[in-house]
Amino acid sequence: MGQSRTGDETPHRLGIAGLGVTSAAYLQTLTASDAVVITAVADLDAARARSVAAGLPFARVMTVAELLTADEVDTVLNLTTPASHAEIALGAIAQGKQVYGEKPLAVTLAEGRSILAAATHAGVRVGSAPDTVLGTGIQTARAAIDDGLIGRPVAASAVMVTAGHELWHPNPDDHYREGGGPLFDMGPYYITALIHLLGPIRSVTGASSRPQDHRVIRTGPRAGESIPVLVDTHVTGVLEHDSGALSTITMSFDAAATVRSPLEVYGTEGTLAVGDPDTFDAPTGLRRAHDGSFHPLDPLAGYVDGTRGIGLVDQIRAPRRTAARANGGLALHVLDVMESLQRAASEGRRVDITTAADRPASVPLTPRAEWLGAVHEGRRV
Description:
It comes from Cryobacterium zongtaii. Keywords: NAD, Oxidoreductase. This is Oxidoreductase. This protein is about 30% helix and about 20% strand. By secondary structure, it is α/β, with parallel strands linked by helices. It folds into 2 domains: about 10-130 and about 305-325 and about 360-370, NAD(P)-binding Rossmann-like Domain (Rossmann fold, 3-Layer(aba) Sandwich); about 130-305 and about 335-350, 2-Layer Sandwich (Dihydrodipicolinate Reductase, domain 2), CATH 3.30.360. Strand 2, helix 2 (about 45-55) and strand 3 form a beta-alpha-beta unit. Helix 5 (about 110-120) runs antiparallel to helix 9, helix 6 crosses helix 7 and helix 7 crosses helix 9.
């Protein structure tokens, strides 16, 4: 299975822009799936692009500009740095191509709106990570909520506390620039999960801080180098969902760890302890009022053994008039929430969310062999 171009089911043609660390996880999924065939790759490091292409039987090495205009590319997978997300997405859309990108959709809400407006005008789809929320972890928690196992959900908490990327990343600069920081780096996982669990968000309040103006790289050839911190590195807030549920969120690069569950959902009859939304299959625990402790739930829903790229496969497989689960409208809503939370923190006030989003369709429990299967949608090779 994977990279096949024979038979009646012709895979969707994919070009990948950006072949850094993140691309390895996507390639694991996409080369195993009959839904796509990778026909082009591009990276600023030409040697890296050639190395990746050597393992892909139908891929040609191109520049990014060439990839955006290539006839053999139906969808552009945008794995470049956040600052380039909007430029490349708009370039692909201008050529009539679909786009799926890494999170965040863009570094500003204005850029995100321009991407969605261009896609609507061109009649093409836009999708965006994170797709970890489509795995059995978050989807099992969602099924438990939808099945009434905790009664009426009234609140949730989302907590991510960790030391900074400079401790392990040899080039952590982007994590401390616009489009980085804990909110934009990790917030999309947590906020997207909260929307899957409790629905879209209508307003936010918050506060934030920047305890350190510089960070010192601790590993790699730049060890000892000091880099500036240009964004707040501890952000906390309250998200008011359309349903009336209230979520609290804490995103921090300023402490070692936390003992809290990454996500907890509180209902009138029980509580869910939900695992890391940056993974696909973290276990979910349920405790009701009469229970003495949490007990694990068996997987109830989601793509089994999901890996990065399943959101793109889901987008390709979705009928043309059906929204994919990791769709651009949802990503724009998440971007709006994050930007509004920053504004609420800086201005000390409640900020209304100006975008709307539908709660994505739930994912039935789907075996890996099934979601890796070929598709009938999309243009032919």
